[in-house]
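Per-record layout

source: Actinomadura rubrisoli
name: RNA polymerase sigma factor
length: 425
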Amino acid sequence: MAPSGVRRSGVDASIEAVWRLESARIIAGLARLVRDVGLAEELAQDALVAALEQWPESGVPDNPGAWLMAVGKRRAIDRIRRQRRLEHKLEEIGHGLAAEAGDAEFEVSGDERIEDDVLRLVFTACHPVLSTQARVALTLRMLGGLTTDEIARAFLVPEATVAQRIVRAKRTLSEAGVPFEVPEGPDRAARLSSVLEVVYLIFNEGYAATAGDDWVRTDLCQEALRLGRILAGLAPGEAEVHGLAALMEVQASRTRARTGPCGEPVPLLEQDRALWDRLLIHRGFAALLRAKEIGGPPGPYVLQAAIAACHAQALAPEDTDWAQIAALYEILARVAPSPVVDLNRAVAVGMAHGPGKGLELADALADEPSLRGYHLLPSVRGDLLARLGRRDEARAEFERAARLTRNAPERKALLDRAASLASPD
């Protein structure tokens, strides 16, 4: 027989795994019943505590998700009963919960209802009434099952800051009376855009960390991928959802090739493409095909996925269809105009039609206020200037980019690039 400490450790690991898999469904199911996302999350946490107390002795139940849901429902009933001044609510909601929990307390709703509940939770956690930082934190907490400590470490901020964001987000949702529902009509597109923005922000922070000592944070990429795949299953008729999934799958396929032996960034054109994950590329292509089959004008995520697919199709850097990529960026600039898109277009044009053409586009962004502190603008200019043989100007741009970035490996790579352009004594 295993020692009690080892057994306890194994049960704790099982609870953590179950929580990661089931927490979104449990919170979503409870939110449908109590109509308050903040309260639903508290009730789910109560159920988790109960599991931590009971499972080491009783063992992990056959259906752990149903066990947690049943305990959460009972906690909801208890909470309502304690609110004596809301006895009419006890009559209206409490009895309904009790009947639903009933004798079959370890049964859960059908898969269709659970999926509907999770989709409602996604739209609620990503509601535009919340700040971007709050939406990201709440999504990772409620849909990803991450602790405040894990979220804080992922984004290099104090745990207290994350906890405060989550508390404020719940309060904001409650005070704004945000309904626990999937939006329909004109509001749906805007709300869906907010959801996709949050998921892609999480992915990008893992794909190219804005600060800290690591260039790539695989855990965040994986979490965003998981959320993207869930969304694709929950909203199969939305082309942009599949577009985002495709974009993340293809970009994630490069993970092993994006860092060198010491964790340094490896530029796209210098990556060993044999290290690219062909399974993820295949998944990305399949998601992009589903988006195209749905039809309609391509949205920003479908267009970005198409650009990523162009890179993935090239077995060697020189095989890249830069003219096609430049054309896609031109369309993207019309569909979702932004200075960052224009900067990426400058890179593509520089590769397709020469560095001089690319530099003209990059220079046109020099006075753009939103790019004033953006390190990739001088980095792109530095690369284009170097290809034009203007070494001193290029070195100055790489040094400027190094001063602007907050990521340590990227700063070193930029300084190394600047040093390589220094004139020999």
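summary: Residues 183-288 form one domain. The beta strands are 211-212, 406-407.
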